Amino acid sequence: MKRRTFLKNAIYLAALGEAFIMNMKQALATESLGPLLETWTGDHNGYPRFDLAKTVDLKAAMMKGMDLKREQIKAIAQAKDKADFKNTIVALEDAGRPFNNSVRFFDIYTSTMNDKKMQAIETQMRPIMAKFDDEIIQNDPLFQRIKAVYEARQNSGLTPEQERLVDVYYRQFTRQGAGLDEKKKARLGEINERLAALFTKFSQNQLADEEDYTLDLDSEKDLEGLPESIKAAAAAQGESKGKKGKWCIANTRSAMEPFLTFSKRRDLREKGWRMWTNRGDNENAHNNKATISEILKLRAERAKILGYKTHAHWILDNNMAKTPEAAMDLMLKVWKAATNRVKEEVADMQAIADKEGAKIKIEPWDYRFYAEKVRNEKYDIDQNVVKEYLQLDKILEGMFDAADKVFGLQMQKVEGLPVVHPDVTVYKVLRNGKQIGMWYFDPYAREGKRSGAWMNEYRTQERFDKDVTPIVSNNSNFVKGKPGEPTLISWDDANTMFHEFGHALHGLQSNVTYPSLAGTAVKRDFVEFPSQVNERWLMTNEVLKKYALHHKTGEPMPDALIEKIRKAKTFNSGFITVEYLASALYDMKIHLASTPDSDIDAGDFEKKTMAEIGCPTEIVMRHRPTQFGHIFSDDGYSAGYYVYIWADTMSADATEAFQEAGGLYDRKTCDRFRDTIFSVGNSIAPDVAFRNFRGRNVDTNALMRDRGFPVS
Predict the structure, then answer these.
(1) pLDDT-based confidence at residue 31 (cuts at 50, 70, 90)
(2) In 3-state terms, what secondary structure has residue 54?
(3) What's the pLDDT at 9?
(4) H-helix or E-strand containing 437?
(5) pLDDT digits over 557-615, tens only?
(6) Disulfide: which of 35, 233, 544, 603 matches 52 by Cβ 3.0-4.6 Å?
(7) Helices (H), 306-356
């Protein structure tokens, strides 16, 4: 008896030991997930722990975050109390914080450090995330509680901001199919899951063609016309690609556009242009045409299920424009004036080519090169000379100074915080001595970083439970100068810096209660408005006279050169507008034409559309279909690339408000701009926010005046 008891106890203790060991292993396995899931703490109101977060743990962290959020959603949906604003809407605002934190890291790494291992995680997780989103949207008990709060919103004693939040939630759920029957919900889930996989495939294909192709220059003869800064960057690129002794032009906008502008070798310009514009359209494993065709069919089917005529109608229904027709009307109004201007620009370029005895017809790979010659001849401006005064670090200082003068913000560099890459610098953002947020700056191109420039939100402002300050980043793809030498950027690059910083300022100055309404979480055709206005401060004396300093002499940009830049403000506006609008019109037309049964060839549709709209043969779309990440790497700008021109009508009109008040630094106008636009997020309808600033609806003719086009 005693022996049996002893054996029984021994077995029991052994089992306990195994359970203990398993629990310890599980605890150790999940301990590393903490930095990816936990609320950020420490100085500066908390910051992301890139030093502790491990990308290898991202999938596990996100899955655990989903489980935690799933339990919170279940508790909200199954609550026995009558649905009200606090127990339903506020509870939803507070749900899923660990998951949201893991997604922040995921988004940062997939956009800036997307190596092969990270791409594998992205390929796995995008469809899972899409499925999880649908799981929440399609939770009928949850939707019924949201609907009950929505229907009672006007008699529940809610503040205007709370009522706005209820409306945002209700529209979000209904627009994504919360009220559909189970069969339609199931099909919608399948579509969204498949689209997430296709979006990832598209963006990874584009990145592959940007990283795998370079324009290799073998001799000094191949460098003819290139300024020293481009030569140095090309030499550095060649060395990084294992081609020491050669010069390599990367297959990205930031590298290829300067080459096309200055290279005197027409054969190499054509070669580089074709390589660049064929990203995603090569006969290799990264061709995006079939991916685009499937995306279009699935989007069209989804729109039908949701009760909309086309994907474009579904997208526009939630934007300021409301209908595709309204967006098309504005684009076509500008298109006619822009194409007429292009005829003038091409005639000027052809005249120079003829005078030089080039015996050519201007082609797309010639446009930037000869436009630069026209600029020199008409305005006596050499972009290489302008670039000598545009040091990245100094323009950064000028950007900060303008933000101080306009918005009362001070940017102070912070040392010692962990970052995702050594190139990243961190700043705390102050107003009246109080820290209101943090700003991370990631300026340089590298392998695994997506091309272009963008703003990313690490943490969203809120104050419904406690004050949470925002953390945002700006990301660019400048090519580093030689060690010890400043990085010189073009005028367009400097303008883009101010534009993207405008998005950052929109996020940083948010002053609302609920995170779903904060910062840049506004309608897509409004989000570009504040950033486009912020571009205007680059051109002011306050920035140029103090911060546009020659990189060798330290002398400020001469008044005569500044005046030339201002006089040339609308130079090449035909090309800039047509290149953009060709893409925007294509985007709208292809989404209006797509049906669940159509097999649209993106290239054939491009040729057809350009012929229909009368696109000048000297210009191609700014983003040809197979690299049009704005509309095919997610749903963000799909049937919505028009938003830049829509927002620019507001930015042109808003700029005139400053001019009427005496200038861009008028104190009262700056304060009103901050209080009515930058700080309110989506707590106020965008058309109301604009009227609060301007005192009336937008005047679309302001855009025509701003671009130097005839006003109808």
Answers:
(1) low
(2) coil
(3) 52
(4) strand 434-444
(5) 999 999 999 999 999 999 999 999 999 999 999 999 999 999 999 999 999 999 999 99
(6) 35
(7) 311-316, 324-355
CA neighbor of 452 nearest in space, from 471, 427, 474: 474
Q: Please enumerate in sequence order all residues whose Cβ is within 8 A of that of 219, keeping only pairs 6 or more positions apart, or say none.
A: none
Q: Would you say 403 and 544 are in contact if contact means Cβ atoms under 8 Å apart?
A: no
Q: What one-character-per-residue DSSP string does 206-227 give?
A: HHHHHHH-EEEE-SGGGGTT--
Residue 265 has pLDDT above 60, yes or no: yes
Length reported for the chain: 712
Nearest 5°: the CA angle 415, 450, 113 is 50
**pLDDT for residue 622 is more than 90:** yes
Amino acid identity of 489? I
Residues 302, 188: Cα–Cα separation, whole Å:
6
Q: Which of 451, 439, 369 is nearest to 407 (CA)?
A: 439
Secondary structure class of 358 (helix, strand, coil): coil
Based on its alpha-carbon atoms, the radius of gyration of the chain, rounded to whole angstroms, reads 27
Q: Rounded CA gap, 48 and 62, in Å?
A: 16
CB-CB neighbours of 560 under 10 Å: 9
Angle made by CA atoms 264, 268, 272, in degrees to the nearest 5 = 120
The structure's pTM equals 0.91
CA distance 107 to 113: 10
Whole-angstrom distance, CA of residue 634 vs CA of residue 504: 21
Confidence tier at 189 by pLDDT (50, 70, 90): very high
Q: Does residue 27 have a pLDDT over 50? A: no
Which sequence positions are flagged as catalytic? 500
The DSSP secondary structure of 278-304, one letter per residue, reads: TTT-SSSTT--HHHHHHHHHHHHHHHH
Q: Which of 641, 585, 594 is nearest to 329 (CA)?
A: 585
Scanning 380-428, the segments in alpha helix (DSSP H) are: 383-387, 392-407
Sheet order of strands, 410-414 included = 410-414, 425-431, 434-444, 471-478, 454-459
Residues with Cβ within 8 Å of residue 150, at least 6 apart in sequence: 166, 167, 169, 170
> Residue 327, Cα to own-chain centre: how many angstroms?
21
In Å, what is the CA distance from 286 to each residue of 139, 256, 278, 627, 629? 37, 20, 11, 11, 14
**Closest to 645 in 3D by CA, of 620, 674, 617, 622:** 622
Positive or negative, the CA dihedral 176, 178, 181, 185 is positive
CB of 686 within 8 A of CB of 320? Answer: yes
How many CB atoms are closer than 10 A to CB 614?
10
Measured CA to CA, the distance from residue 58 to residue 113 in angstroms comes to 13
Distance CA 280, CA 261 (A): 23
Alpha helices in 44-159 (DSSP H): 58-77, 91-94, 97-112, 116-137, 140-151
Asked if residue 203 lies in contact with residue 292, where contact means CB atoms within 8 angstroms, the answer is no
Q: pLDDT per residue over 552-572, tens digit each? A: 999 999 999 999 999 999 999
Residue 414 belongs to what H/E stretch?
A: strand 410-414
Side chain identity at 60, as an amino acid letter? A
3-class SS of residue 429 = strand
DSSP, res 82: P
pLDDT digits (tens, 9 = 90+) for 640-665: 999 999 999 999 999 999 999 999 99
